[in-house]
C-alpha cells in the first residue's frame, strides 16, 4: 500500500525488558506527569509519558540497554531537573556526567535545561558554558547562567 503523504505514521520506542515491562512502565508513569498505562498484556505494555507513546516488551534476558540510545528531557526550571533526576535515580539508578543518568532498568536519560541551547548559541558564552557543564553531573541552571 502506498504511503499517503497526508497521513502521519506514528513512531514510538519499544523498550525491551526481561519480564518487568509493567513494573518499568509504572515506575516511569510515577515520574512523568501526565502519564498512563494504556494497554497491558503478558507480552506488551503500552504507556504514555507526557502524552508520548511508548511500548514495553517482555522479551527476556537476550538484550540490554546501553548508552547508544537515550531519552532527552528538556526542563524549564531547576526544580524540574531535580525532581526528574531524583525520580529516575530512585531504586538503583546511576549518575553519569553532563546531565546523563541510567535508571534502575538500565535506560539512559539526559536531563537538560532548555536554556542550554540558547547559551550554546552565544559565541562568547558557549566555551565558558561548555566548560561549566563538562564538570557537572546533574545540570545546575544557575551555574550555567553564571559561566
The SSE string, one letter per element, is: EHEEEEHEEEHHH
Low-confidence stretches: none
According to CATH, the fold-level topology of the largest domain is 2,3-Dihydroxybiphenyl 1,2-Dioxygenase, domain 1
Q: How many strand segments? A: 8
Instruction: Please compute the radius of gyration using only Cα atoms.
Output: 18 Å
Q: Which outline best applies?
A: globular
Helix content: 25-40%
CATH 4th-level superfamily of the largest domain: 2,3-Dihydroxybiphenyl 1,2-Dioxygenase, domain 1
The level 1 CATH classification of the largest domain is Alpha Beta
Q: Kindly name the structural category.
A: alpha/beta
* Count of domains: 2
- In quaternary terms, these chains amount to single chain
Strands side by side in the biggest sheet: 1-4-3-2
Mean pLDDT: 95
Provide a concise account of the structure shown.
The chain contains five helices and eight strands; from the N terminus they run βαββββαβββααα. The protein has helices spanning 21-31, 78-89, 115-121, 126-134, 141-146; strands at residues 14-17, 35-40, 44-49, 52-58, 70-75, 94-95, 100-102, 108-113. Strands 1-4-3-2 form a four-stranded mixed beta sheet, with helices on one face. Strands 5-8-7-6 form a four-stranded mixed beta sheet, sandwiched between helices.
Strand and helix layout:
Blueprint: E1 14-17, H1 21-31, E2 35-40, E3 44-49, E4 52-58, E5 70-75, H2 78-89, E6 94-95, E7 100-102, E8 108-113, H3 115-121, H4 126-134, H5 141-146
Parallel strand pairs: 1-4, 5-8
Antiparallel strand pairs: 2-3, 3-4, 6-7, 7-8
Helix pairs in contact: 3-4
Amino acid at each position: 500500500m502506498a504511503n499517503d503523504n497526508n497521513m502521519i505514521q506514528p513512531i514510538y520506542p519499544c523498550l525491551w525488558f526481561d519480564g518487568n515491562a509493567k513494573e518499568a512502565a509504572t515506575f516511569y508513569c510515577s515520574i512523568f506527569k501526565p502519564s498512563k498505562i494504556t494497554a497491558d498484556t503478558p507480552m506488551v505494555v503500552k504507556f504514555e509519558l507526557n502524552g508520548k507513546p511508548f511500548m514495553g516488551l517482555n522479551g527476556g534476558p537476550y538484550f540490554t540497554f546501553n548508552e547508544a540510545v537515550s531519552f532527552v528531557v528538556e526542563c524549564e526550571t531547576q526544580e524540574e531537573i531535580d525532581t526528574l533526576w531524583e525520580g529516575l535515580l530512585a531504586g538503583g539508578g546511576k549518575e553519569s556526567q553532563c546531565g546523563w543518568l541510567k535508571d534502575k532498568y538500565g535506560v539512559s536519560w539526559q536531563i537538560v535545561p532548555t536554556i542550554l541551547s540558547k547559551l550554546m548559541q552565544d559565541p562568547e558564552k558557549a566555551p565558558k558554558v561548555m566548560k561549566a557543564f563538562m564538570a557537572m553531573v546533574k545540570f545546575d541552571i544557575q551555574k550555567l547562567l553564571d559561566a
